[in-house]
Design a protein that fits this description.
The chain is α/β, with parallel strands linked by helices and 282 residues long. It contains ten helices and 14 strands. Strand 2 and strand 3 form a beta hairpin. It is globular and about 50 Å long. The structure holds S-adenosyl-L-homocysteine (SAH).
Length: 282
Amino acid sequence: MRTWPALQLSFVPELQDLLQAALVDFDIAAIDEGAPAAHPDWRVFFQDSGARDTAAHELRKSFPADALQISPIDVPDEDWAARSQASLTAIRVGSIVVAPPWDIGNPEVLAAGRAATIVIEPSMGFGTGHHATTRLCLAALQAIDLRRKTLIDVGTGSGVLAIAASSLGAVHVLAIDDDPDAIESARQNLALNPATDITLGVLDLRHAMLRPFDVVVANLTGGLLVATSTRLSSLTAAAGQLLLSGFLEHEEQDVCAAYAGWRVQRRLQEEEWVCMTMLRSR
Ligand code: SAH
């Protein structure tokens, strides 16, 4: 039976956000966060043992051993990915419900009033709606009048934000990701949400030649938002809006400094995660 190289991570709860942010930098296949606990115990799965060993080395350098215990393990493949995702349920952000196919009619989330339901098949990447930054972006998108606006979703993952934007009235939506597996999962999710107007592309933000859009959504990482500020700025039309997320509160100053020609129109925060809607300063 195939086994998956993984790291068992036990840590103090205060480390959760920092750890989640640090893990974004590695080539991870999936994270099994287990049940919420006073002392969280995660399993992080990697594509190969080289990626696992690099991550273990970097994490040991970044976090003190008494706050984070790291044990390399090899987990037999018993469809763990499907099992770790199967317990996901529908979530609601404003008037948008993001539901896995098995929880579309969830009475609790629908009881809160009229909602547009987006169906997302949980995959190994981000974008099931269960990450704080996805929820923040879903809220920020609903605060904008997207009707007849063109929009690009940079780093679309499962396609969740592009699908939401299209259902909120955005047109000619382009969703890009440099990870072909992400685009494949987005393609499957578009099929589950047929009433959408979205083009998908395996493209790297840093090299793609693209025209400007009325709205640019970039739920990436603090480091990448800083490194690509010129690109993301030129991708946004003159009077356009730029939604930035994926960064932590302690990275906010650096992100704002990289977007000096912009002002914050709306700022949302959930735990340590931040989302900013930006407009060009006059
Ligand atoms: N938009 C989704 C997923 C965000 S995760 C959501 O909000 O839930 C960030 C995504 O950005 C990942 O799928 C990753 O593959 C993609 N990404 C990272 N660097 C990129 C780059 N340089 N160009 C395009 N996509 C990139």
